[in-house]
Design goal:
Blueprint (H helix, E strand, L loop, with lengths): L5 E3 H10 L6 H14 L12 E4 L4 E3 L7 H17 L7 H5 L3 H19 L5 H16 L2 H4 L4 H15 L6 H17 L4 H8 L54 H27 L2
Antiparallel strand pairs: 1-2, 2-3
């Protein structure tokens, strides 16, 4: 990123797959959100090769084929599917719904834009651009350079992530102490306080571990602590009106729902057994 002014989203996805790193789903969805806003007044079909990101994290949409609002929204749904595939697992349900082409066509551009914004709340554009720029720099940086993360750079990146997710940074000396603690925790392989705070806030923890993230120098949110990752290619074909995008490699968190259903089934079975017992024991 230091020797080029812009990079296409298609190249970003390609680099993530080549280097086995992840693009945080919040950041990928933010790029699609800004691309959506760019075509609101003049709907056109955008592919990953038509969306460009600058070194400062600004998104630009190149000229694409003129389209209707439903067609443009469908193309954005496939674009979102492409960035979520390289995001790995733990993608929120609200974003998974937005890769549905039929749903996107029904929402059209304005409705799709509103749904994306709701999925990104709290939306901090400047923080998102900083994190995006940092991730792109990490993708372009050789592995040997990415391995030497500094405590100050990690703390700065952590502050950007906190701003993106709506957390308050520690003031003054507390900030310095947090930096020292983060460096020590990283050396021991232990989770940082920011990781714990994000988990407590709703499970949106962003891993800044150098061995699993493209942002080892900057600590940007590029990975989740899990074993799975996807090597599937992002969809490239134009939306034909009803084809579901390829979402292999993305697992929605629904374990809690399954557990609740199992508990309900057990309770119903016990109630039926109790009733039958009393019926057979009756006079």
């Amino acid at each position: 990123m230091s020797d080029v002014a812009e990079i296409s989203l298609a190249r970003v996805i390609e680099l993530c797959r080549e280097r086995d790193v992840r693009l945080a789903y919040e950041i990928g969805a933010f790029v699609v959100f800004e691309a959506c806003e760019a075509v609101l007044d003049s709907p056109r079909v955008l592919r990953a090769r038509d969306v460009w990101v600058s070194a400062a994290g600004d998104t630009r949409a190149a000229e694409g084929p003129v389209a209707t609002s439903p067609e443009a929204a469908a193309a954005l749904a496939e674009l979102l599917a492409g960035v979520l595939v390289v995001a790995g697992q733990e993608v929120p349900r609200m974003l998974l719904h937005l890769v549905d082409v039929d749903r996107a066509q029904a929402l059209q551009l304005n409705g799709y834009r509103d749904e994306l914004e709701a999925a990104l709340v709290p939306l901090n554009r400047s923080a998102a651009r900083r994190v995006l720029a940092r991730q792109l720099r990490e993708l372009a940086r050789p592995k040997s350079e990415r391995a030497g993360a500094g405590a100050h750079e990690a703390a700065d990146a952590d502050a950007d992530v906190d701003a993106l997710l709506g957390y308050s940074a520690p003031p003054g000396d507390a900030r310095a102490a947090a930096m020292d603690g983060a460096a020590a925790a990283a050396a021991d392989g232990a989770p940082t306080a920011s990781d714990a705070a994000r988990v407590a806030a709703g499970g949106r923890s962003l891993d800044a571990d150098p061995s699993s993230s493209p942002s080892s120098t900057g600590g940007a949110p590029t990975a989740r602590r899990d074993a799975g990752h996807s090597d599937d290619a992002a969809p490239e074909a134009a939306p034909s009106g009803g084809r579901d995008p390829d979402m292999r490699g993305i697992v929605e968190h629904d374990g809690g729902t399954r557990l609740a259903k199992l508990a309900l089934a057990v309770a119903v079975a016990l109630a039926v057994a109790w009733g039958l017992y009393h019926w057979f024991q009756g006079p």
